[in-house]
Amino acid sequence: MEVDRLVEGAFCWAEAGVPDVQVAKAFYSTVLGWSFNDVPLPDGGVYPMATIGGRNVGAVFKIDPKMAAPGAPPMPPSFSNYIQVSDVDAIAKRVGELGGSVIVPPMDVMEEGKMVVFADPTGAVLSAWQPKRHVGFGRMGEHGAPAWLELMTKNIDVSASFYRRLFDWEISQSKNSTMQYFEFAPKGTTVGVGGMMQMDVSFGDMPSHWLPYFAVDNINAAVAAVKEHGGTVCVEPTLIPSVGTFSVVQDPGGATFNVLQLLQM
After folding, report:
1. How far is CA 150 from CA 115, 126, 167, 213, 245, in A?
2. Is residue 177 over pLDDT 70?
3. What class, spelled out in words, does domain 146-262 have in CATH?
4. Cα(102)–Cα(116) distance, rounded to whole angstroms?
5. Which pairs with CB-CB distance under 8 Å and at least 24 residues apart come from 30-33?
6. What is the pTM of this model?
7. CATH architecture of the domain with range 11-131
8. Which residues pair with 185 in a beta bridge?
9. DSSP conformational letter for 139
């Protein structure tokens, strides 16, 4: 589905931080059908923007040790996920008031927009994006395009309270789940754009974290492609009743994401 405009509070962007951009490009081109447009950067580098049918669906970028905060460990291979907002500065201020912490203070990204990176009270890292020229995803819910954003949290009640007040999200218990799973939607809308799941003891010491879902036409073919092209399957295809079948996978560099074959309604 083509998207021309995203509303405030919507999942608007995802980018994979990887150790080897060329390896990542080859992997995502095969697994998700991405093409890449290398956008020039002021420092002489490029930002590889992923597209499907000429519309943006995400990006990859090379991890730079300088990206880590002073005294912090190097940034691990992972997806950075963004929520669209109208005022990044206000969000950054609100994060601290609500018990979270700002990791990267509000910063302008050329003429594309403005961003802030923060951690919620459970430690899960997320970013907010105030768009200028770059408005985010141009396709959603079709093969290779983003379909969902999910928080795996150590404390679902704390997380729900934090994000409800930070983004004015409408948060409610999912009707499609027998476990404690909340869905969230931008204020004033009725269509969920993501969810929150309580982590149990089976997750061990794994910290709270956000993961994107990308839609695929055939889950078994996608999982086979992940294995064949150097990725790792963390969770084999699993049915979500009334939703579809998903799998948790990693690219060759170690960035984790989900693939999801939606049920045909």
Report:
1. 20, 11, 15, 8, 15
2. no
3. alpha beta
4. 7
5. 30/225, 30/228, 30/229, 31/222, 31/225, 31/226, 31/229, 31/231, 31/259, 32/57, 32/143, 32/144, 32/214, 32/216, 32/222, 32/259, 33/143, 33/144
6. 0.94
7. Roll (3.10)
8. 170
9. B
